[in-house]
Amino acid sequence: MPNFIMTHHAELTQGLAAIGLALTPEQIALLEGYLGLLAKWNQTYNLTAIREQERMVSYHLLDSLTLVPHLAGGTRLLDVGSGGGMPGIPAAIARPDLQVVVLDANHKKTTFLRQAVIELKLPNVEVITDRVEAYQPAQKFDRITSRAFSELAEFVKLSRHLLADGGQFVAMKGVYPYEEIAQLPEDFAVSEVLPLVVPGLDAERHLVRVVAK
């Protein structure tokens, strides 16, 4: 074991380099600010089962940020079942040009999300408290993501009315979801499944891109 303790900042900056994301010092500071808020509110609101900040860097920040390189071409992102804001808030910080809606039916979680958006001053993030199947925005989304909302088929069925023409689902999964892919609605298809490497996380991660046939 190394005879030093890596700071959160060093772990984050080294992780960003490993992912290939070049962020400004201001963006890194926002990510660290978000992590601090998440850890603070988690003591009361039970936003995540991961309670140690040193684990939150890899499990939440870096895991969420592996999505960002795969959002190219998108302008509006919906994060379904966002919970504590993953991956929507880190993605919004990394891509300030992206309009992000973080949606969750849990009022306590969206209370936290609204406070985080205010304190971090994130003008490109909108927080919605609603069930995804009931949500009816004025404008649809060209990218819809989820990290821990439901199985793939259920995710697509419940949120398909929110996908713009030519849009994509970009679901974040653990092990390769063979069975979930097999159960997709017949009018949707997987265009690619990409393995994701999350620095500091010893677990399989995959991104599944789903499009309408």
UniProtKB/TrEMBL annotation:
Protein name per UniProt: Ribosomal RNA small subunit methyltransferase G
Signal sequence interval, chain numbering: none
Catalytic activity: guanosine(527) in 16S rRNA + S-adenosyl-L-methionine = N(7)-methylguanosine(527) in 16S rRNA + S-adenosyl-L-homocysteine
Recorded family membership: Belongs to the methyltransferase superfamily. RNA methyltransferase RsmG family.
Gene3D superfamilies, sorted: Vaccinia Virus protein VP39
Function: Specifically methylates the N7 position of guanine in position 527 of 16S rRNA.
EC number: 2.1.1.170
Annotated compartments: Cytoplasm
Protein origin, superkingdom: Bacteria
GO process annotations (BP): methylation
Organism: Vogesella fluminis
Listed HAMAP family: 16SrRNA_methyltr_G
Binding-site residues for S-adenosyl-L-methionine, renumbered to this chain: G81, M86, V132, E133, R147
UniProtKB keywords: Cytoplasm, Methyltransferase, rRNA processing, S-adenosyl-L-methionine, Transferase
